[in-house]
Design brief:
The chain is built from 19 helices and 18 strands. The chain is of the alpha+beta class. The protein folds into five domains: 53 residues, no CATH class; 143 residues, no CATH class; 114 residues, Nucleotidyltransferase, domain 5; 153 residues, UvrC, RNAse H endonuclease domain (Nucleotidyltransferase, domain 5), CATH 3.30.420; 54 residues, 5' to 3' exonuclease, C-terminal subdomain (DNA polymerase, domain 1, Orthogonal Bundle), CATH 1.10.150.
Length: 592
């Protein structure tokens, strides 16, 4: 479904599309306010016909992820989880962190919810089992380099120099695999014996090292909870809803142990049913996670359970079941996930409310102040130069009250000579909107709902003149400053509108103004810096871009290059004696 600006406002699927669409335009008796509002915004429909329900499910998830339609349940978090990978197929396997599971012969453990926790676990494995952390090709590269620092620290067995046989190394790997599977008893007993032996021998520092390793293992074991004796992989998902916000709490059970949990925020609408939210969440979540467990436990029965099971089975390559426990310990685990989701939602509610107020709420205040019907995208512009030198323009974008950095753009002024901010701004705006009308680049093809100029009447008039020449009707306001160079109001439609300096709208306008300045000034500084380097080095005979970069890498500063001897200059990569003498002569001739 497409809205007034041809934006996608809803994506849905159906076996009988005609019946599904017709439902929206029948009696309003059972329709929620969300559905009524959505129907009022529909301007056209777009249909994509596929061969099966499975293809429709996959396409729906992809389109929701790509377009974030306003009236779909949206998964706000989009992350990949870290795993521990053990390259058991190698002669001398490695243990390291990865965020992608590949169809190789390696062993994967996870997902973990914290990259820090993964790194700490890997560090502990290196200390305990002395597994190599390098990426050398072994045994092909054996003996080509000296052992690294980890060998000398006692955290590597040194397979790079054949200090350990493949068979002995494999025994250490087997112990590490047991450890990652949650079997700590052997390692704990081994360390306790070592600690006692060191203590009896009065080697107290070594005994303390063993005690610290034991404490790290106990800490790791304490964070894992046995949930059953079946040693299965499963995810337990509970969803809590409060108004237009929802939280999905996920417990990750691997080999019968809870190895972590994660909560993810969703954006829903009043009237959305829990089964529909659960179904939408499963489709979006598992479309973006690299690992799919054998079972997924959820709190309520869902309509498209069989379809989702078939889809998940296809992704995993093995049977996957979606289960709604009805009684006993399994039901209590799902209830625990729901309770955690509710608690997290209440905990975050005030935080989310404050964030919403300073972004969407502030933007809504600006919309009301200016009397606009809709306001989603704001663009702001500024010019930066020093006495007309290296004039540049900046364009920053705020979407729903938040900076959209990917759409920021820089402009080097091409047609204006000297310090003429009005003419420079006209060039920037003309280039931006001409490209927008030609659909050149995603950030340019999307036009703003409001343009905010850094200044008053003069800058606003320039913007309106450009828009008039191009036949565009976009509201323009100026961010007016007082004598102390602080924002005091908005200039809009030939009137200066005062703003409450304690309001969220005022704070958002200030952030937009500050960000526009920062972006322009940083670009101008970078150009000045490049110009300074060019003026000093690129004017030297025999020094081109490659040698200039090599000199700066080696000497770091111009002053170091200036004070270097010919022999020292020759040390830089790519420098021969003739080039070094040219640099030396350039600086010392200038000094004389």
């Amino acid at each position: 479904m497409h809205g007034p600006k041809d934006e996608i406002i809803y994506v849905g699927k159906a076996v009988n599309l005609k019946n599904r669409v017709r439902q929206y335009f029948q009696s309003d008796k059972n329709k929620t306010e969300k559905i009524k509002k959505m129907i009022s915004l529909i301007r056209r429909f777009e249909y994509i016909v596929v061969d099966s329900e499975m293809e429709a499910l996959v396409l729906e998830n992809n389109l929701i992820k790509e377009n974030s339609p306003k009236y779909n349940t949206l998964l706000k978090d989009d992350k990949t989880y870290p795993y521990i990978k053990v390259t058991v197929e190698e002669t001398f396997p490695r243990v390291f962190m990865t965020r992608r599971i590949r169809k190789d012969k390696a062993r994967y453990f996870g997902p973990y919810t914290s990259g820090t926790a993964v790194r700490d676990t890997i560090d502990l494995i290196h200390k305990l089992f002395r597994i190599r952390s390098c990426s050398r090709r072994l045994p092909e590269d054996t003996g080509k380099e000296r052992p690294c620092l980890y060998y000398h620290l006692g955290q590597c067995l040194g397979p790079c120099n054949a200090y350990v046989s493949p068979e002995d190394y494999r025994r250490h790997i087997d112990r590490a695999l047991e450890f990652l599977s949650g079997k700590y008893d052997y390692v704990r007993k081994y360390l306790q014996d070592k600690m006692q032996t060191a203590s009896d021998a009065l080697e107290f520092e070594r005994a303390i090292e063993y005690r610290q390793l034991l404490e790290e293992i106990d800490s790791l074991a304490a964070s894992q909870k046995v949930t059953d004796v079946q040693m299965e992989d499963r995810d337990i998902i509970g969803i809590g809803v409060l108004g237009n916000d929802a939280v999905a709490q996920c417990f990750f059970i691997r080999d019968g142990r809870m190895i972590g949990r994660e909560y993810l925020h969703l954006e829903v609408h009043a009237g959305d049913e829990i089964p529909d939210i659960v179904s939408s969440f499963l489709g979006q979540f598992y479309a973006g996670t690299p690992y799919i467990p054998k079972e997924v436990w959820i709190q309520s029965e869902i309509q498209d359970k069989e379809l989702l099971e078939k889809w998940l089975t296809g992704l995993k390559g093995k049977s996957v079941r979606i289960i709604t426990p009805k009684k006993g310990a399994k039901e209590k685990l799902v209830e625990m996930a729901v309770k955690n989701a509710d608690n997290q939602l209440l905990k975050d509610f005030e935080k989310l409310k404050r964030e919403d107020a300073r972004t969407k709420g502030a933007q809504e205040e600006i919309r009301t102040l200016l009397g606009m019907e809709e306001l989603h995208r704001i663009e702001s512009y500024d010019i930066s130069n020093i006495s007309g030198f290296q004039s540049v323009g900046s364009m920053v974008v705020f979407q729903e009250g938040r900076p959209k950095n990917s759409d920021y753009r820089k402009f080097r002024i091409k047609t204006v000579k000297g310090p003429n901010d009005y003419a420079s701004m006209k060039e920037v705006l003309m280039r931006r909107f001409e490209r927008g009308l030609k659909q050149e680049g995603e950030s340019f093809s999307t036009l703003p709902d409001l343009i905010m100029m850094d200044g008053g009447r003069g800058q606003v008039n320039i913007a309106e003149e450009v828009l008039g020449e191009l036949g565009l009707n976009i509201p323009v306001s100026g961010m007016v400053k007082d004598d102390g160079h602080r924002t005091r109001g908005l200039y809009y439609q030939n009137v200066e509108l005062p703003i409450d300096q304690h309001s969220e709208a005022f704070k958002l306008i200030t952030r937009i103004q500050d960000e526009t300045h920062r972006f322009a000034i940083e670009y101008h500084k970078s150009l000045r810096s490049k110009a300074q380097i060019h003026s000093v080095l690129d004017d030297i005979s025999g020094i081109g871009e490659v040698r200039r970069k090599a000199l700066m890498r080696y000497f770091k500063t111009i002053e170091n290059i200036r004070s270097a001897s010919v022999e020292e200059l020759c040390e830089a990569e790519g420098m021969n004696r003739a080039a070094a003498e040219s640099v030396y002569g350039f600086f010392h001739t200038k000094l004389n």
